[in-house]
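Final report, results section. Input specification for complex C-07:
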Amino acid sequence: MVALVSIETVLLVLMVVLVAALLRSHAEILRRLGPEGPAPRLPEPRLTEPPPGLRADAAAPEIAGATPDGDAIKLAFGGTPTLLAFLSSGCTSCAGFWDVLGEGRLPHGLQSVIVTRGPDREQRSKLRSLALPSVPVVMSSPAWEDYAVPGSPYFVLVEEGTVRGEGVATTWDALASLVGDAIEEQRGVDERLAAAGIGPEHPSLYPGAGE
Amino acid sequence: MSVLEAHGLRVELPRGWSGRIFRRPAGGASLHAGNFQLPLQDGEFGDRSTARMPAGGCFVAVAEYVAGAGLEPGKGLFASRRIPHTLDPTAFSSRGLAHPRPGQAAMQHFFTATGRPFCLYVVVSGPRVERRRQLAAISGVLRSLRFSP
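Structure output:
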């Protein structure tokens, strides 16, 4: 009887050890597959509402900074529509835009400028290797704050000193849509003004003039 | 007021002005400034910029020459050691334009600063009645200009 109990006890201990080993093995497999919790989701291409700090038709802040070549530049925004592309050298979603912005695919008359963080956050040599000669790069951390940029890539269309549109775009199609919407919206405003008999030189557009 | 500083040049630009200080490979430094939106790329004397100037526009270029081949800083054409801060309205004419265009007038002044030979080139556009206001704004920019070797 004692022998039978001893055998059962040994078998029970062996089973406990076996189950513990299996559980440990399972835990190790899970650990190697990834962290606990739901798997990270990659952002899908999308446009977002402008951040609350900067709305469409808000004044477009001037931008001053350095270029990767060591030049200095200050941009003030007049009649030439300008697409500001806020990009980072280390951002994977930005990667395609460094080239595509220099390919002349934007609407005629629209110029583009890449705005990166300042020299404290970006390496000039890295930017020189990414940038095309046809698209100027301005390094300016204050510009990111002035335009309330939530992250890169981020795009702002400015014209006549005002913001015409802005948003996130992670693909060329999304960017084209963003630019197209902003241009269409402005065209609609111009058409409504023209229908009301208000043209570019109409006195009502210049309050205070002639006083 | 924004400060631009690069390649031994420093300037303060008022709100509404755009500008740049740049240097091409094997070339001297250049400064462009204007009270309008400058094109993003241009030649030393602002061919594209002056082509876009609106009425009432001001454009300033300070272009450095490379010494050598008969050009000596501080001598001949570059003998002047000062840059004029107050510009003479009578010095402006269409003959001073590097790129002649209707409605524009310009002046040129060659000088040497900190051993570097430069040309100051200023273009204004629009009616003469605006000239006093334009030159006052340009004088403010020129007074802020600093050179280093």
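Strands of chain B lie at 2-6, 9-13, 18-23, 29-34, 58-64, 104-113, 116-125, 146-147. The CA atoms of residues 53 and 137 of chain B lie 16 Å apart. This concludes the modelling results for the funded period.
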